[in-house]
Specification:
The chain has 906 residues and is α/β, with parallel strands linked by helices. Helix content is 33%, strand content 18%.
Length: 906
């Protein structure tokens, strides 16, 4: 029992142990299965991560390669924009502001991720502008239509070096040479590239497509055996550039252009297409050009001649397919471009030849000006100097007005740029000298407003601060030119008197002795001055006398004359006085100008547009200097300069006096009228009549003091002008009196003038109105006043419209004569309009009567011969009627009559 009990107990324990072992085995098997499954899952996850990262890296790599190709293409586009890098099927000339690298083909990039499609010639138009992503980031998914941009193969020629084309593929070599020349021409201003060809084997046939350039001087050919002379000429040109253009100041024309924005010399490209073995001298000259030519704008394109490697020399291996190479691209293969189409070459060359034949485009006005902020730093004590433009050799042409040369004579037919030349000269001077140093007086006799831009206008309120006077549209007002000469003569006397007082002889010494005085240099510009000197009358005679005096004595006092004309050959009054012409030693001839230079000097006959001959030795041939004049006539360019100077004008400086012969002045704008103030009883009332043709803006006037003859007669049939003069006189007189300070009577005897007379009556408060019906009472009363023993207590002004139509017969006429003869001494004055000089004479008593009761008169459409009875002496005034002009004479102040412009009806 015990054994059984022990066995039973052992069996139970064994079963329990077995069950436990079985459970542990099952748990271990479950754990094993779990570990095995986790290991497999981990392995799969790592594989997936590896594959995903591999895809990302591959995509990033491909994107970066594409981006780098795009960056290379974009850089090439910047280096060769427009005509420098465009494919031939869409090529056209596009002149650039700087020389660019030139395309000869395209680089073959074997590592580009997406191959170019066959036949897609313009696949290089799109270029990635930056890197696609940063390393480690996935590149953007490429589009289905993405293609790698084309990277042009570029070589540098202009302003850089020379190009040597090697290889046995003559067709590819010819294509490279033709493409280089066409791209160099198309990226430059017409005429800026000049080509000389040496082609002894084909006798110029290799450059036949460029033949249209030859008549314009852009292309020249050198025959067999001419290489020696060609190389010598190019070496001499390089020596001249170094000596006269660069002159040690700049190392190359490229540096000069960057510093001054000027390119005084064209590029010269010599195309050397083979030939016999070079002589020792030819090899020496060629080596000199290879070393020094590029700095002086001389470049060589060589094929068929042995050239050693060296700095600035680009070698192009011409071969078909992918066997071509360019030295600057290293081992990268190049696909050369085909030759440009014959039609493209011919059409481009023809356009360039036409542009060159028409003349070069002008340079900008800014090329003559100092840097912004450095204006007005020059002193005019000894003269004024300014550049007028560049010479063909490069240096600027400086022109001076001083004691010598003192005055300038400019000539050029219509359309040759005379006005533009004057603008450029004025702009260069105005930018260097302040208004305290330089003053301009401008007069234009032709029908136009060339100088109006220097005065304030409706569109632009600015003005050139240096300008004191502007006269435009004065072709019929020669008196204004005479007034300018009189003014300059008065200024000359003022300066001469000051020089005597300080015991000096010229302006520089006067300014040193009187530093506080105002002594600017005066430059008077008279365009089409021959109008002033035309004719044989008193105006031209006095003008020539004044010109001669100013030309002779003005130099020492800082007064300079610039006379301009389309053709000076017909000016008898000027050329008849050699002493006067000799004073104008500075001669400026525009294209095809006549007789302004010496008789044997024909330099102006062959001038292109925007060029001039400047000669400071009275036109002698050896003193010629050719200048390329900038474009100064463009209003926007000029306005930029004028506004900049206007903002710097001195405090208190007002605008210049503007005289426009086509503008009718207004009384309200008259400074004399604006200054009038009402007083109780002015002793000498002033009647304004119109604007004088004078440098100063002043009004013609007649003083109606208590004296015999202080009456005014307006003579002529032009009713509008006569009414305007009477209205001006009445309004100006009324402005000087307070209420009831004077008596005004307006008489109208012409129905056509009634509206004007009523307008004046309405503008003068308290004035009386009379027509033919009520005139008898006025005449009787006025005659009584005129014969009274004592003067009236207040002035009485009778304004009569059409006084020759006076009704009432002999009695009324006697009363009017009594008023005219005796009234002024008793403060009774008549201002009347007579419609003819003979009618006025009848009102005064007939042909035998005295005319001194009319102390002042204004003549309209009355010839000078009809005015002799009212003019002192035996002669008659030199007067021929002109629209809206009148002749004024006041015997109390005038020695001769003056031309005036009536103020317009308000």
């Amino acid at each position: 029992m015990e054994i059984r009990a022990g066995l039973s107990h052992a069996l139970g324990a064994a079963q329990i142990a077995l069950h436990r072992a079985q459970d542990a085995a099952e748990a271990a098997e479950a754990r094993y299965r779990r570990v095995t499954a986790a290991a497999k899952a981990r392995k799969r996850k790592l594989a997936d991560a590896r594959d995903g990262r591999t895809v990302e890296i591959t995509a990033w790599h491909d994107g970066e390669l594409a981006a780098l190709v795009g960056v290379a293409a974009a850089a090439a586009d910047r280096a060769a924009p427009g005509a420098a890098g465009e494919p031939w099927h869409r090529w056209e000339a596009t002149p650039l502001d700087r020389p660019a690298e030139l395309r000869v083909g395209r680089l073959i990039l074997p590592e580009a991720p997406v191959p170019a499609r066959a036949g897609d010639d313009d696949s290089g138009d799109r270029a990635a502008g930056a890197w696609a992503s940063r390393p480690g980031e996935a590149a953007p998914e490429p589009r289905l239509d993405d293609t790698p941009p084309e990277v042009p193969a570029l070589v540098a020629l202009l302003d850089h070096g020379h190009i040597v084309v090697e290889g046995d593929d003559h067709r590819s070599a010819d294509a490279v040479v033709a493409g280089l020349l066409l791209r160099a021409l198309g990226t430059s201003v017409p005429g800026a590239v000049q080509i000389v060809g040496y082609d002894p084997e084909n006798l110029g046939g290799g450059l036949a497509g460029f033949a249209p350039l030859a008549p314009a001087g852009v292309l020249a050919f050198v025959g067999p055996g001419g290489l020696d002379k060609l190389l010598d000429d190019l070496v001499g040109h390089v020596r001249r550039i170094n000596e006269t253009v660069l002159a040690g100041e700049y190392s190359s024309l490229r540096e000069l252009h960057l510093a001054t924005r000027r390119r005084p010399e064209p590029w010269r490209v010599a195309v050397l297409l083979g030939g016999p073995e070079l002589s020792r001298h030819e090899r020496s000259q060629l080596d000199r050009l290879l070393r020094t030519g590029a700095a002086c704008g001389v470049h060589l394109v060589i094929r068929g001649l042995p050239v050693p490697t060296g700095p600035g020399i680009e070698f192009v291996l011409a071969a078909p397919g992918a066997d071509a190479r360019i030295q600057s691209a290293g081992a990268l293969p190049v696909q050369l471009d085909p030759a440009p189409g014959p039609s493209v070459v011919t059409a481009t060359c023809r356009r360039i030849a036409e542009a060159v034949a028409a003349g070069p485009a002008p340079v900008a006005l800014d090329s003559l000006l100092p840097e912004a902020g450095s204006e007005w730093r020059e002193s005019s004590a000894t003269g004024v100097t300014a550049p007028l433009g560049d010479s063909p050799q490069g240096p600027r042409v400086m022109v001076t007005l001083s004691d010598y040369p003192p005055h300038a004579l400019i000539a050029g037919p219509s359309g040759t740029g005379k006005t533009n030349f004057i603008y450029a000269w004025m702009g260069a001077l105005a930018a260097r000298y302040s208004p305290d140093e330089l003053a301009f007086y401008l007069l234009d006799f032709k029908e136009g407003v060339s100088f109006a831009r220097f005065a304030p206008g409706r569109r632009d309120p600015s003005w050139l601060p240096h300008v004191r006077l502007v006269g435009v549209n004065v072709n019929t007002d020669r008196e204004f030119g005479l007034a300018l000469l009189r003014f300059l003569g008065g200024e000359l006397r003022r300066r001469a008197d000051a020089a005597k007082q300080h015991e000096v002889t010229n302006l520089a010494e006067l300014r040193a002795e009187d530093p506080d005085g105002s002594w600017p240099r005066i430059v008077a510009v008279v365009d089409e001055f021959q109008v002033l000197l035309s004719g044989r009358d008193a105006v031209s005679g006095e003008a020539v006398d004044l010109l001669e005096d100013l030309a002779r004595r003005g130099r020492s006092q800082g007064i300079h004359l610039i006379l301009a004309s389309q053709d000076v050959s017909g000016i008898e009054a000027l050329w008849g006085r050699p002493a006067l012409v000799a004073q104008f030693s500075l001669r400026i001839a525009l294209p095809r100008a006549r007789r302004v230079l010496a008789e044997t000097n024909a330099a102006a006959d062959s001038l292109p547009r925007y060029h001039a001959v400047v000669n400071a030795d009275s036109g002698a041939v050896e003193a010629n200097r050719v200048v390329r004049v900038p474009a100064a006539g463009d209003r926007e360019q000029w306005s930029s300069l004028q506004h900049r100077l206007w903002r710097r004008r001195p405090d208190g400086q007002g605008p210049p006096r503007l005289f426009d012969g086509d503008v009718i002045p207004k009384l309200a704008d008259s400074p004399d009228f604006r200054e009038m103030q009402a007083t109780e009883s002015p002793a000498a009332p002033i009647a304004l009549l119109g604007e004088t043709i004078d440098v100063e803006s002043r009004s013609a006037r007649t003083v109606l003091r208590r004296a015999p003859g202080r009456n005014l007669a307006v003579i002529g049939t032009r009713m509008d002008e006569a009414c305007a003069i009477l209205a001006t006189a009445g309004r100006s007189l009324a402005a000087q009196f307070g209420p009831d300070g004077a008596r005004f009577s307006v008489v109208c005897l012409d129905p056509d003038a009634r509206a004007a007379a009523e307008a004046l009556h309405a503008r003068i408060p308290g004035s009386g109105w009379y027509d033919a019906e009520g005139l008898n009472w006025l005449l009787e009363d006025a005659a009584t006043e005129a014969t009274a023993s004592w003067p009236a207590d207040r002035p009485h002004f009778i304004l009569i419209y059409a006084a020759d139509a006076l009704p009432g017969g002999k009695a009324a006429g006697d009363q009017l004569r009594t008023i005219l003869q005796q009234g002024p001494e008793r403060r009774l004055h008549v201002l009347g309009w007579w419609r003819g000089a003979a009618l006025l004479r009848e009102s005064l008593g007939g042909p035998a009567s005295r005319t001194d009761s009319i102390g002042a008169w204004v003549a309209l459409d009355v010839h000078g011969s009809e005015l002799s009875p009212y003019y002192p002496g035996q002669g008659a005034p030199n007067w021929y009627p002109r629209p809206w002009r009148a002749l004024h004479f006041d015997r109390s102040v005038h020695r001769g009559a003056e031309v005036i412009i009536p103020y317009g009806n308000a």
